[in-house]
Amino acid sequence: MQITKLCKSSTFRLALIYMALFSLSVLLLLGFIYWSTAGYMVRQTEATIEAEVVGLAERYDLSGLSGLSNLISERLSRQTSETSLYLLTDMNFNPILGNLEKWPDAQPSDQGWLSFHIDGASPHAEQRKALAKVFPLQGHFHLLVGRDVHNLAETQNLIREALFWGLIITIVLALAGGIMMSRTMMHKIETINDTCHRIMDGDLTQRIPRSGGDDDFDKLIATLNRMLDQLELLMQGVKQVTNNIAHDLRTPLSRLRRRLDMLRENKITIDRHEELLDQTISEADGLLVTFKALLRISEVESGSRRSGFKNVDIAVLLDDLIEFYEPLSEGKDQTISVERQQIRPLHGDRDLLFQAFANVLDNAIKYTPAGGHIRLSVNDQPDLLQVSIADSGPGIPVSAHEQVFERFYRLETSRSSPGNGLGLSLVAAIVNLHHGQLELSDNCPGLNLRICLPRV
Ligand SMILES: Nc1ncnc2c1ncn2[C@@H]1O[C@H](COP(=O)(O)OP(=O)(O)OP(=O)(O)O)[C@@H](O)[C@H]1O
Ligand SMILES: [Mg+2]
User: Residue 425 CA: which ligand 1 atom is closest?
Assistant: First the structure.
């Protein structure tokens, strides 16, 4: 089971490929070492024999058979160990002179090279390997010049064996390393898998345990955990929004149903009938407005509007805003003052930015009592645009600063005024879309709401 799992693991397959490549490289390296050591020794021996052959041939050309025989005898008498081999024969390969008993049976190559075995010094000694070059001499003689290469062959064998075991050890070590690496990787991946399964089973609080190091895997786990935090937060948001929607729409829907029930009664007058119908229609309109606002917030939160960002002239936008809301504030005897310097354009969505400023200004006018004062100030910094809307109304207690941005949240004191608690949720979504921030503070008295938009 464990082995099948191991074989299916991609890390193990990668380790196998790595092992094959590594073994091939080691094989090539060992091959080169063999060629440059054992091969070199053979080439050296061949070169020495060739040189000797040339010397002997020259002597034969100069002094004939007797000169050659003298030279061979002299060389044979000079050598202490029997490593140099000579054999001079007649045309029928009958020995004339040399330290070999008979002409070898082996067939020479085209270049005259011959590999053969000679008997050892003692009767029980093993046969020894020899390498020689043979060639015919004018006058119908044959000459063999060679070397006893037994020691050389032994060394070659030793090198070959060492290289073979070297390769085997490399393969075994690479395989063991591959298995160890794959098991570590598999363990880490299984931990992630387990956590994912527990999360899929519904426990969103689960997080992938970290090993405590600072390697790539740990960084990946940290990112995944942050993603899960985000996901949990989003899920909580969705849950809360669903609850809020269900809770806040139940009241208008019940009212709508009650009115429809009353309409079915036979005893009501025509005028009452008309009145109830009008109320039902306006209740349905109110619900439609709420749904439209909810859809707008979702659309903004999806981020799809970011693709349509353009440079927006904020100065013109604020002029339009004041022009639009002045009649409303004048109707409540409120004054609006504007403080601003030169404002550079900002990259964003004009309609949404207008909507955000409008919602905040609408709140300021709505919740500030008649005769109050509203101040709109702009601070244009190189990397940030700050727009503050401060009023002299009742303000928002610090404990509710976060909640006012939730869908349908309204302060108890505001329940009598029209609205459904979605205005600031839309403002928050729009500011988020522009990567900005919202700050609420006490205007002593009143509320100061600051929108900070970065110039990205
Ligand atoms: N300037 C303000 N002064 C005092 N309270 C405020 C102010 N702005 C907002 N609030 C409080 O925050 C709540 C949420 O505001 P939000 O704009 O989201 O909803 P709303 O104004 O009640 O309804 P909507 O904007 O959807 O018509 C308000 O109900 C109100 O209680
Ligand atoms: Mg509002």
Answer: 18
In this predicted model, what pLDDT tens digit does every residue of 124-155 receive, in sequence order? 667 888 999 998 887 678 999 999 888 888 88
Ranges 114-128, 171-185, 224-238: which has the least confidence: 114-128
Q: What is the pLDDT of residue 211?
A: 80
Residue 341 banded pLDDT, cuts 50, 70, 90: confident
- In percent, how much of the chain has pLDDT > 70? 97
Query: Which structural domain, as residue segments, surrounds residue 381?
Result: 305-454
Ligand 1 close to Cβ of residue 367 (< 6 A)? yes
pLDDT at 123 over 70: no
428 Cβ below 6 A of ligand 1: no
Average pLDDT over all residues of the chain: 89
pLDDT single digits (tens) 210-228 = 888 788 888 999 999 999 9
> Which of 129, 155, 181 delimits the end of a domain?
155
Question: CA 456 to CA 453: how far, in whole Å?
Answer: 9
Mean pLDDT of 394-402: 95
Domain count for the chain, please give it: 3
* Same domain flag for 50 and 81: yes
Residue 44 counted as domain residue: yes
Shared-domain flag, residues 258 and 272: yes
Rounded average pLDDT over 250-267? 88
Q: Is 268 in the pocket of ligand 1 (CB under 6 A)?
A: no
| CB-ligand 1 contact for 393 (6 Å cutoff) | yes
Q: Which residues surround ligand 2, an ion (CB under 5 A)?
A: 363, 423
